[in-house]
Design goal:
The chain is α/β, with parallel strands linked by helices. The protein has four domains: 133 residues, Aspartate Aminotransferase, domain 1; 184 residues, 3-Layer(aba) Sandwich (Aspartate Aminotransferase, domain 2), CATH 3.40.640.10; 223 residues, 3-Layer(aba) Sandwich (Rossmann fold), CATH 3.40.50.300; 229 residues, Rossmann fold (3-Layer(aba) Sandwich). The strands form eight sheets. Strands 27, 28, 30, 31, 33, 34, 35, 36, 37, 38, 39 and 40 form a twelve-stranded mixed sheet that branches. Strands 2-9-8-7-6-3-4-5 form an eight-stranded mixed sheet, sandwiched between helices. A six-stranded parallel sheet has the order 16-23-15-24-25-26, sandwiched between helices. It starts with 9 loop residues before the first helix and ends with a helix.
């Protein structure tokens, strides 16, 4: 459907389709699929204050930047409000009687000449047979177009300019056709009194002429003026711009609008003989180029990296799109070097306008080319967009056009149509610990309640709080909790990359549940592309098995020092096709500034993924936020999807150690309660081992960090550690080691070690392979006669067994490199079902440890353990389970509150579930 003389009229397209402008996927406008460069928004923001002044009427800085970029003198450059403004002035300035315009071409060449009273001659320039027609010989007989109306026509050869392409200098792209147009018919028309307009590359064909042939033609006809329109030249690999070695009778039009995706700013320039430039300046309206456009133009003209990246990306996407279009029945795809493709539809039952109407019903716009001279209603043009957007066009076309008859092609296209993919949504945060993990779990449970098969996903998690799946793979505990909210078995695909920090600048890297080594920050950045491929494969596998996936980001997408190699936030959201809700913690303060600020530092493609915001942890009356919510929407163009109240005592494991380490010091009652002190180690891991103790009515849990904090508790627990050797040194430096040893000797306090804490209780820890150190052997606390050696292979196993002293069942998981040898003087405390001893202690039970994480989650054992502490105080044992460590009621409570707080129906529509 041709709704205007040009592509990209989004308002008219949306009105015709009966949809919102934001819903239109526009293939009719040939803009950079990467969108504007990331520096654009920041630059414009920095220039807003300058809007109180008139812009520089001479565009001095912009002209100088263009002169430097194109290697010309400043007086050979003029800037305009888009190159089209200059184009319309040229026929008036150059004082020629007629114009020669090879067709098909950009229609404004003709219009500019007609408005200036210049006679127009249109001519086809024949070249060799096109590659597209060689691919489909049965379609070779080309219909001839009607004679153009209202202008003189000479040798109008249908689509001849679309056929050839020159081999470009400096390109290694071997698939380009190597023939160039025969310019003899054009040369034969030249008398010296004409303008010649040539698109380089041509619009709508996307093919460039041989620059040296154009220079030679211009040199041979010095009295003719050649206007070479290089609006799309920056998309072409290795194109030799005519701004260099330019004959005096050549004017080169240059556009920054298309390559930098800023059509709303309007910015272009021209390079020509200084006399022509001076004449153009005299006709150009004052202040034609506004201050923002001038500032952007200066930066754009100096940005070579963006151009290189664009050309590589466009070439890859263009080739992939063309390869997918060619097998579709009735389509002939012409070769192109630009960021668009010309396509011919040879069907008796369908022409390009009808195809455009059907595509627009799916909110996809293409450019019908029947208003290009030399083309008819069979032709349409599509811009090259991102891979995901191109795939959407291909799917829509495949639905409309009958599949090809060749069986392999049927399989090829039907596989894309039949592939199922879960609907997705991602929670990202304005900071760490904003509540993303809990909201992910909540939406997972809500989706489950509403009958959807749902799974959580976090591409990369940095946490020392991990878990072992049934098949012996390690994953982040937060995704385990989210899996429980979905009532599905935890799966390493839900957290394909797990980072466990073991130093200030390094971490153990776990991929699909298996450790692949310790890496520094620099090493991991180098490894990230490989990790991202694994993450995408994991997501795709989950998406094929579920109706919905709720993704969680990490930290903030606005970390400008990190996001260029991000694999967990916006890059993952783009791969998943997941709209993003940004979560902000209002309890910290500054949440609305965080929303606005985050949006300001995002690239345009990242902003496009953000659907809205969620205010989290609000205390008070929601109506008081109305002005702030309205302001946020006005400033960002995105709504707030809900205000979630501050939820205390959720009864769910924490997302990471942030909350644990910021704890006030103790939880639980003070009177009539046994006291359990948990030592906060610098590299504490699996701190959720103690969550179940907090729910008991007669237990007070304290977090201690210094010897002075220790007091006289009933139990001191040394938790797991990702770096046992470093954390043991910390215990000694802080005085905690001596204080714990003293307690062990006075037999009034029970000392318990879990995993790394168990190893610390022993006599020595050896690290011959440098897992956590430089190969040292260090002494332990010496409270148990056991030695530990760090092994290369990590133990990862789910385990069930019993506690030897009471015979009660316990369950959990093991995650450790250490292998501990136990002296005969110690008694086993925990034994697995297979008979393996995974814990030992003193015969009196006052010092013991185990490798079993989650040992206190078993309700009966936990009560026996607490009652034993009560008896030691002389208090009566309660003798029955007083609290059940069951997350189901917590999930149901959480889902009820969040369902009430969020606009769930709108979120479902956002996901495409309704």
């Amino acid at each position: 459907m041709q709704v205007s003389g040009h592509g990209g009229n989004l308002r008219q397209l949306a009105r015709t389709a009966g949809k919102a402008e934001a819903d239109i996927l526009d293939f009719s406008a040939n803009l950079n699929p990467l969108g504007p460069p990331e520096w654009l928004r920041a630059l414009i923001s920095s220039q807003v204050s300058s809007l109180v002044h008139y812009p520089d009427p001479d565009c001095a800085a912009l002209v100088q930047a263009a002169a430097e970029r194109y290697g010309v003198a400043p007086d050979e450059v003029i800037a305009g409000n888009g190159s089209t403004e200059i184009l319309y002035l040229l026929p008036r300035v150059l004082d020629k009687q007629r114009a020669i315009i090879p067709i098909p071409c950009y229609s404004d060449y003709t219009r500019a000449c007609v408005l200036a009273g210049v006679q127009v001659n249109k001519i086809g320039v024949r070249g060799d047979e096109s590659e597209a027609d060689r691919l489909k010989p049965e379609l070779q007989p080309l219909a001839r177009t009607k004679q153009p109306v209202g202008v003189q026509a000479s040798a109008c050869l249908h689509l001849d300019l679309a056929v050839p392409v020159v081999q470009l200098r400096g390109t290694h792209h071997s698939s380009l056709i190597t023939h160039h147009p025969d310019l003899a018919p054009l040369a034969a028309q030249l008398r010296g009194d004409e303008l010649v307009f040539i698109g380089q590359p041509n619009n709508p064909t996307g093919l460039a002429c041989d620059p040296d042939a154009l220079r030679a033609l211009a040199a041979k006809h010095p009295n003719s003026v050649f206007v070479i329109d290089e609006a799309f030249a920056d998309f072409v690999d290795g194109l030799d711009s005519l701004t260099r070695h330019r004959p005096a009778n050549v004017v080169v039009l240059l556009s920054l609008t298309k390559i930098f995706a800023i059509p709303g700013l309007r910015l272009g320039c021209a390079v020509a003989n200084c006399k022509i430039i001076q004449c153009l300046r005299e006709l150009l309206p004052p202040w034609s180029v506004n201050s923002l456009a001038q500032a952007v133009g200066v930066a754009a003209l100096r940005d070579r990296d963006y151009l290189r990246h664009t050309r590589l990306y466009v070439r890859q996407q263009r080739e992939a799109l063309a390869a997918e279009l060619r097998p579709l029945e009735g389509l002939t795809v012409f070769p192109s070097q630009a960021n668009f493709l010309l396509v011919r539809l040879d069907r008796k039952d369908l022409d390009a306008p009808a195809l455009a109407r059907r595509l627009l019903d799916d909110a996809i716009a293409i450019r019908v080319c029947d208003n290009f001279e030399g083309l008819d209603a069979r032709y349409f043009r599509v811009a090259v967009r991102t891979g995901a957007e191109n795939a959407r066009l291909l799917d829509a076309l495949s639905q409309i056009l009958a599949p090809p008859t060749h069986s392999s092609l049927i399989t090829h296209h039907s596989s894309r149509l039949c592939r199922t993919r879960a609907k997705a949504l991602m929670f990202q945060g304005t900071s760490s610990n904003a509540g993303k993990s809990v909201l992910t779990a909540a939406l997972c449970r809500i989706l489950l309640q509403d009958g959807y098969r749902v799974a959580p996903f976090k591409a990369q998690n940095m946490s020392l709080n991990s878990f072992v799946t049934r098949d012996g793979r390690e994953m982040g505990r937060a995704q385990v909790v989210q899996a429980q909210a979905c009532r599905v078995e935890p799966d390493a695909r839900m957290n394909p990359i797990l980072l466990k920090p073991n130093s200030e600048t390094g971490a153990q890297v776990i991929v699909m549940g298996r450790p692949v080594g310790n890496m520094s920050v620099a090493d991991y950045i180098h490894f990230k592309p490989q990790a991202f491929e694994t993450a995408k494969q994991a997501f795709d596998a989950l998406a094929a098995e579920n109706d919905a996936i709720v993704l969680e980001g990490a930290g903030s997408p606005g970390e400008v020092n990190l996001k260029h190699h991000d694999i967990v936030n916006m890059q993952m959201a783009r791969h998943a096709g997941a709209p993003v809700l940004l979560v902000g913690d209002i309890d910290r303060g500054g949440v609305f500034a965080s929303f606005v600020g985050t949006m300001e530092v995002l690239a345009e493609w990242e902003r496009a993924l953000v659907a809205g915001f969620v205010v989290n942890r609000f205390r008070g009356q929601e109506s008081l936020l109305k002005d702030a919510l309205d302001y946020t929407q006005r400033h960002t163009g995105r709504p707030v999807f809900g205000v979630v109240p501050n939820l205390t005592d959720l009864g769910l494991p924490e997302e990471d150690s942030v909350t644990f380490k910021s704890a006030a010091g103790d939880t639980g009652p003070r009177d009539g309660a046994v006291e359990i002190a948990v030592v906060d180690l610098p590299h504490i891991s699996n701190f959720t081992d103690f969550d179940s103790l907090r729910i008991e009515p007669d237990v007070r849990v304290r977090i201690v960090r210094t010897a002075q904090d220790l007091g006289r508790p009933d139990v001191v627990i040394l938790p797991g550690s990702k770096n046992v050797i470093t954390d043991l040194a910390h215990l000694r430096e802080s005085g905690l080691a001596d204080a714990i040893a003293a307690m062990a000797h006075d037999t009034k306090t029970e000392i318990v070690g879990i995993c790394g804490g168990y190893q610390m209780l022993g006599e020595t820890i050896e690290d011959p392979h440098g897992i956590e150190s430089s190969g040292r052997t260090i002494p332990g606390l010496g409270l148990l006669k056991l030695t530990t050696v760090m092994a290369l292979e990590k133990t990862l196993v789910r385990a069930s067994g019993k506690h030897a002293a009471c015979g009660l069942a316990v369950r959990g998981y093991e995650i450790h490199h250490g292998r501990s040898s136990v002296s005969d003087s110690l008694q086993p405390t925990v034994m697995r079902e297979d008979g393996e001893v995974i814990g030992a202690g003193l015969p009196n039970g006052l010092v013991w440890g185990t490798y079993l994480h989650g040992i206190f989650d078993a309700d009966a054992f936990r009560r026996w353990f607490i009652d034993r502490l009560r008896a030691r105080r002389g208090w009566p044992a309660l003798g029955k389970v007083c609290a059940a460590y069951d997350l189901e009621p917590a999930f149901e409570r959480l889902a009820a509150v969040v369902r009430k707080s969020l606009r769930v129906d709108e979120i479902y529509r956002l996901m495409g579930l309704r």
